[in-house]
Amino acid sequence: MNCLAYDADVENPEFEEYHVTSKHRVQVLNFLDVGEAKQFFTALDQQHPEVTLLDMPGASGKQTREQIQKFGLFQIAKQLGYRTTIATVLNNAYNTVNSLDIMLDFCGENADYVVVKSQLWNQGSLTFDRWQQSQTRTKFQQLKGIEIEMPVLELTSFDALHEESISFFEREQLSFGDRILVDSFLDLSQPQLKAASAYFGITAAPEKKLTSTTKAETKA
User: Fold this and answer.
1) Which residues pair with 105 in a beta bridge?
2) Whole-number Å distance between alpha carbons of 163 and 13
3) Whole-prediction pTM value?
4) How confident is the model at residue 202 (pLDDT cuts 50, 70, 90)?
5) Residue 199 belongs to some domain of the structure
6) What span, in angstroms and rounded, lies between the C-alpha atoms of 185 and 54?
7) Residue 220 falls within a domain, yes or no?
8) Roughly what angle, to the nearest 10 degrees, separates helices 155-164 and 176-195?
9) pLDDT class for 189, splitting at 50, 70, 90?
């Protein structure tokens, strides 16, 4: 698949760091800077990737919406043959629900939506009840959003990936024990990703896709 991937979290570019030695490279690009945002749109126009990933930093919703409006992202995406997907990773607090609610009102039917519920936030006394009972979820469903549940990767295996800054593509570098846990995590994740494959642009014959992700925020 021809894919462009960008990490817009310039202070904590983990997405890029995990792929430093991978053949699937991720570029750091500050989408909130006008000059670098211009580079982003120029790359779309010149390279015509099937899928483009843009990982936005947490708590950047307001500035992201300003850039979307300034550049007319939805109109440009349509001209270039793309459809935009907003993927939001929820925690179990109100902040990510509130941020998504604002984004739903701003984007409306101009985008598709995926909510990612990491089971890390659904253990013991932790639940997604605030999301389940929210009016935001009702609005999300009316806009044909898709919810997926991602399994928990064993923390020691996550640490092994993190400490070596390697991606899933390079998991053969892990110890055998960590590798089988990562393989299991990926196997469990596959049906969930498949459920949202049309919105992620990873179908057998993918429609060109522009996907923006927002991380679970720790503060509103």
Assistant:
1) none
2) 14
3) 0.88
4) confident
5) yes
6) 23
7) no
8) 100
9) very high
